């Protein structure tokens, strides 16, 4: 029988929680932990192993190296140095570190013979995902990022608290950059087929301040960060869901950071958009029927990502 194998690169706050989330939900049979801080990897491995006896599913956890990645189905990339964000609360402050880190091991992943799906979390998410995709040279869609997946979860949570409707009965997305340059296309928000605009005509629960909810989705990460100097549960659950979708070939539509090749009139960058995800990673970018104003807003988000990408040429 085939074993479902997942590797986490970078087992800090985020990577360790991803491993835990994947383990307790029984998403994988084997989890490999890769980190240049050997003791950190060993310690997380021990702690995770200590939970298995009381988990509902069996899972094998081990410390591994880049050379062990050949038959891994999904890699989650979560390296970083989170304290770099404390001074300015700006994900770009981690860019020099994460791009250099990825440049330092992307060839090692390639050399291992890895041919699965890689999901990137490391920030700035859209730019690091592109760097990994370019470096690995796998077929399009095999490398994607969590992108606005987490921000969308925050929007769903805010919409749930505002309307009382369960998260899973709401269709809504944050799109654009996993950063300040993202927005919610309200014209595409619906509650199981009932558009938000229709509902808002008669029900005051749906007549809310849309700008305020958007800001909540964008700023929620910094609320979490303020008290613990990291974020863990939301991102770990987002990534674990994506791993589950890939391993079960679910063909679920979820926001992710994906390469745009003409979709939305954009190309040459990765951005958060709804994607159809299955065993081959992102199998299709879903083009939402945006209004003209929303299209313009999306282009301006992409311009922002492009501007941030200019710094890549200064990183050696
Ligand atoms: N995309 C999202 O929605 C989202 C959400 C939360 C955090 N993040 C990002 O995830 C990343 C990880 O966050 P964190 O809080 O776990 O950071 P952290 O500093 O706690 O952990 C980073 C880990 O990466 C390891 N590492 C660093 N360089 C490495 C290398 N070259 N090879 C192997 N391991 C290496 C470190 O030893 C450490 O264990 C950051 O970039 C953070 O900004 C993204």
Number of strands: 14
What spatial order of strands do you see in the largest sheet? 3-2-1-4-5-6
Helix content: 40-55%
Overall pLDDT score: 97
Q: Kindly, what is the distance between the CA atoms of the first and last residues, rounded to a whole number of angstroms?
A: 44 Å
Radius of gyration: 19 Å
Count of alpha and pi helical runs: 9
Share in β-strands = 15-25%
Which stretches are poorly predicted, pLDDT < 50 over at least 5 residues?
Answer: none
Shape, please?
A: globular
Element pattern in H and E: EHEHEEHEHEHEEEEEHHHEEEH
Family: Belongs to the LDH/MDH superfamily. LDH family.
Keywords: Oxidoreductase
Domain Lactate/malate dehydrogenase C-terminal: 148-313
InterPro entries: L-lactate/malate_DH (IPR001557), Lactate/malate_DH_C (IPR022383), Lactate/malate_DH_N (IPR001236), Lactate_DH/Glyco_Ohase_4_C (IPR015955), NAD(P)-bd_dom_sf (IPR036291)
